[in-house]
Specification:
GO terms for molecular function: transaminase activity. This protein is an alpha/beta fold and 539 residues long. It has 16 helices and 22 strands. It folds into 3 domains: 185 residues, Aminopeptidase (3-Layer(aba) Sandwich); 228 residues, Type I PLP-dependent aspartate aminotransferase-like (Major domain) (Aspartate Aminotransferase, domain 2); 98 residues, Aspartate Aminotransferase, domain 1. Strands 1, 2, 3, 4, 5, 6, 7 and 8 form an 8-stranded mixed β-sheet that branches. It has a 7-stranded mixed β-sheet with strand order 10-18-17-16-13-11-12, sandwiched between helices. A 3-stranded antiparallel β-sheet has the order 19-20-22. The two termini are 26 Å apart.
Length: 539
């Protein structure tokens, strides 16, 4: 855990020494509340009664706050009749000395300290806390859920606002605060992005994106986009590809539209995104039936063949290649064989698989992809790959792939910024060793199982870049996910289908520092230990 943060209650002498030093730095040098001294240490007058929630990295104190319940509080000495200002409560404590080192101030450490406070208050039975909040940070305190009351207290050079915080509102306010963090302050530089998107963007892609836009009608742009289309086709072994301005949802809508004149079909689902293909088909009013499989399992290929043999009227099959929700990699070669054997059209959602592993789309009728996942560019472009002549008669113009192929240039407005960012990302992808992330993922799945954690996808059909894992029901994926964010690891857990199943998800979309992946299991284990011990039970 050398690169991560840890949150705990201070018990060691060396921790208290750093607490006194940070106390001095904050409440003498920054906020002139106490006098200077040669030792540059400030021992709080209630030190022996305080419990300190602290944040450490490599035995260095980065942040702290103190909590105590013995009366009188420091606020009792500043504000008469304190009880008259407070809402009904059972047990009261006072929060003091909230401080974070200047160079690391930001939401992650602050939210971690507040989480630690919540855990401590739960253990002690406190349901209301009071604090003297510096007037310099009133907006921040209110974001965290503190409610101001009474007049200002203190000296003119160091004024404070009395505030209280109710235990039952703290989780809601912390979640809201976390959601606002991108607007309040960007994530720290060393955070690890294990999200399915937006993914980590390298400097070469960023530089291309911020260049001055060029016309999508210019000779240079037409030449470059044709070259990019060629490279995309080369990457997946398809004859043609069209690039659209929009997400993977748009690309799948285009696939659905181009199936509208292909007769009856079957949509295969074994996860959230297979079920979304069913929704695409319904909205496009396709003639189809759903072949529903168990989430987290491979497609029941034998049963699929039986259905196709029993219903010769079925002319097409539409499935997800890499089911992002579960981390299951469906067998492309089997699907191609099943369809080719029966002269049936095969369509695929390849949104999460393109750029993550070698793909051969030869013979596939239509397939969707995007710029913002394993290709490691910005979200905003989607692709439809195809190998056969298409008829777009009666389709909306933007969805008519035949219109694209017959156009002498680019038929509709394009963003050169997105295109050139994709170009640089694609050049890196074409030289990528796909086996690296696959080895990382294999090792990570093994370590998760060693911790007693259930990985959703079995090893024989696990994807090389998406690992969904399930926590026991007595643990909370939402709380553990937030705790991991405090440690600098950003996982997917907020989607409704993940929350419903108590799942967390690691996505390796691109290239990663092996040290980040190796450190993750121990950091996760520490978060799970805290939860299992009952420290994170308040939700």
């Amino acid at each position: 855990m050398s690169r991560g943060l840890s949150f705990k209650i201070a018990i060691e002498d060396w921790e208290f020494e750093q607490i006194h030093a940070l106390n001095y730095k904050t409440f003498v040098q920054e906020i002139p509340q106490h006098g200077v001294n040669k030792e540059k240490k400030l021992v709080d007058k209630f030190h022996e009664e305080n419990s300190y929630c602290i944040c450490l990295r490599d035995r260095k104190l980065l942040g702290m706050l103190a909590c105590r319940s013995k009366r009188p509080f420091s606020l009792d000495l500043k504000l008469a009749d304190l009880a008259t200002y407070l809402p009904p409560h059972n047990a009261l404590c006072e929060i003091r000395l909230l401080s974070v080192e200047k160079e690391v101030r930001g939401g992650r450490i602050l939210v971690g300290l507040m989480n630690m406070l919540m855990e401590y208050c739960n253990e002690q039975g406190y349901d209301l806390a009071v604090i003297s909040g510096t007037v310099r940070q009133l907006k921040l305190y209110q974001h965290l859920g503190f409610v101001p009351f009474g007049p200002l207290v203190g000296k003119p050079e160091a004024m404070f606002q009395p505030m209280y915080l109710a235990r039952e509102t703290i989780v809601q306010n912390l979640n809201s605060f976390l959601e606002q963090q991108p607007r309040l302050k960007p994530a720290v530089k060393d955070s690890v992005n294990f999200l399915p998107g937006p993914v980590r963007i390298c400097e070469a892609v960023k530089e291309a994106f911020i260049k001055t836009p060029v016309s999508h009608r210019s000779d240079r742009f037409l030449k470059d986009i044709a070259q990019i289309q060629h490279k995309l086709s080369q990457l997946v072994n398809s004859k043609c590809v069209q690039i659209l301005l929009g997400s993977g949802t748009l690309a799948n809508d285009v696939v659905a539209a181009n199936l509208s004149n292909k007769g009856k079909g079957i949509v295969v689902s074994n996860g959230e995104f297979g079920e979304r293909l069913v929704d695409h088909a319904q909205r496009a009013r396709l003639d189809f039936k759903e072949f529903k499989n168990t989430w987290g399992k491979a497609i029941y290929y034998d049963q699929l063949e039986i259905i196709l043999d029993q219903e010769p009227s079925i002319k097409w099959v539409w499935a997800v290649h890499l089911e992002t929700s579960t981390g299951v990699l469906n067998d492309l070669s089997k699907l191609k064989y099943i369809c080719k054997k029966r002269n049936i059209i095969l369509c695929l959602d390849c949104v999460s698989s393109i750029g993550a592993l070698p793909i051969d789309l030869k013979g596939v009728f239509l397939a969707s992809g995007v710029s913002g996942k394993a290709l490691c560019s910005y979200p905003g472009l989607s692709f439809v790959f195809y190998n056969h002549a298409l008829s777009g008669q009666g389709l909306p113009r933007y969805m008519d792939l035949e219109l694209y192929s017959k156009s002498e240039g680019v038929p509709f407005t394009h963003s050169s910024n997105f295109i050139y960012a994709l170009q640089n990302a694609l050049n890196l992808t074409l030289s990528r060793d796909f086996s690296i992330n696959a080895k990382f993922a294999e090792g990570l799945r093994r370590q998760l199982r060693a911790l007693g954690i259930k990985v959703v996808a079995a090893e024989e059909y696990a994807s090389p870049n998406v690992i969904s894992f399930e926590l026991p029901m007595y643990l909370s994926s939402e709380t553990v996910g937030a705790r991991l964010e405090n440690e600098g690891y950003f996982l997917s857990y907020r989607s409704s289908y993940l929350l419903k199943r108590n799942w967390l998800q690691v996505c390796l979309m691109g290239e990663y520092d092996q040290r980040d992946i190796e450190a993750f299991p121990s950091i996760l284990a520490s978060c799970l230990d805290m939860e299992e011990d009952g420290i994170l039970k308040a939700k």
